[in-house]
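Handout, tutorial session.
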Amino acid sequence: MSEQGFRRFRRRGAPADAMPIAADDGSSPPSPSIAPAAAAPSQLPATLPGSWDRIRQVPFDAAAQAQARLPLVSRFRADPAAKSFDLLRTRLLHTLKARGWKRVAVTAPAAGCGTTFSAVNLALSLARVPDSRTILMDMNFRRPGAARALGMTAPGGLAGFLSGRVQLEDQLLRPLPTLAVGLNSAADQDAAEILHGRSCAGVLEDMILRLDADTALFDLPPVLEHDDTAAFLPQVDGVLLIADGTSTTAAQLAACEKMLAGHTQMLGVVLNRARKADSPLN
């Protein structure tokens, strides 16, 4: 095409991408460049569920709990004991939030004060808070009882998890969308050694971070009977002490306070089996 013909072609309004380009040296114009087709949107990988969602959910059968006469006050929301646990929950959450704390040990001066009963029902009360995440760990290796109190079966011993041999998703269970529990299947007389173990602190720190938990409750053995609880105190922010209104003495409470001093904070004393004139929690 001559230069004159090229100009006539342009005046006809040919599409720009179809226009031949005139060469300055009079040679044949190069072939028009063709833009490549738009690439299809890249296929993004599917989002993997978080650690919390990967914990196995298990049925939490209220009817079976009632038939087994399990001590779960959450079935009776109007009961004075249930109201007491809700009040304890609210006060505890206020304290933890004000201080930026998450880890709470639940223990007692002696066996039989109702530590597991209190820890389990407090965890169930905390789990009713919308959009929350609560972890309950049965750290009483002497007399594990959280599984029985919840009407659940523990997947195995907790020692394997605390040593790092068992993965988080294989040990913890979720009976409620907002509650994860670490249950213990059998007693272990090496309790203090397990809690002293170098891996124990790291495993629990990793668990709380990965699960993005709001509150972690640790059901521990009696303070005055073994050194298990003393071994575990560096891992918690504070302690709830459960006293039996029918048997705990002032001397026992004083001994517990002395043992805890300098290691962690006393968050409060919960009076269990109190006389109705003293407290609705019995």
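The second record follows below. Compare its token runs with those of the first.
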Amino acid sequence: MATGPQITPAHPSATIALVDDDESVRMALSSSLRSANWNVIYYASAGQLLSDARRSKPELVVADIQMPGMDGFGLLESIKRWKRPIPVIFVTAYVTEDVRERAKNNGAAGFFSKPVDDARLLALVSELLKK
């Protein structure tokens, strides 16, 4: 994990949903987000998040794009139909200009390639939670 300026969370009690089918990525990103004092609920698939009774609790989602079953774009479309849509930040190991453009055009709040730059992710999360 990169060390740098200490991020002061906009909402220390904010809950972030983390969706990635790779457990090592879930653990690394969860650790990073928790280091900034946010609560993290993590899921191995988009379907797990969408079927979780706690899905209304998160204020932001960090999601992989390439996942079995519903991909990150399908998850984003589902979240946009919620009564209270929340920002979705994408992370992916498969970066192409088409994927980056599609994420932007579909309303993703952010886009990161793996391995994720922790400092940049934490700064964006903090900025989005201030809104």
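Points raised in discussion: Residues 1-5 have pLDDT under 50 and may be disordered.
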